[in-house]
Specification:
- The chain has one helix at residues 13-27, and strands at 31-36, 42-49, 52-57.
- With 69 residues, the chain is an alpha+beta fold.
- The chain is extended, with a radius of gyration of 15 Å.
- The N and C termini lie far apart (33 Å).
Length: 69
């Protein structure tokens, strides 16, 4: 739960973007599948591409808006 009372993302891509270079070096792999074992668990895919980490997975759209300037 967030401090505002809303649900937190079940899988946090930002932490996996930080973990991917570490595990890539340890395992000798550039592509990995990660499972976040939390109450609202989920799976994501991470790929080390040079100095970037590409993170992908399933998502659910819960809001849509337009900004007019």
């Amino acid at each position: 739960m967030l401090a505002s009372g809303g649900d937190e993302d079940p899988v946090t891509g930002s932490i996996h973007a930080g973990l991917t270079p570490y595990w890539s070096e340890k395992l000798g792999k550039t592509s990995m599948v990660a499972f976040q074992a939390s109450q609202r668990s989920g799976i994501l895919y991470a790929e080390l591409s040079g100095e970037r980490v590409l993170v992908s997975g399933d998502a659910v759209l819960f809001s849509k808006s337009e900004l007019y300037i």
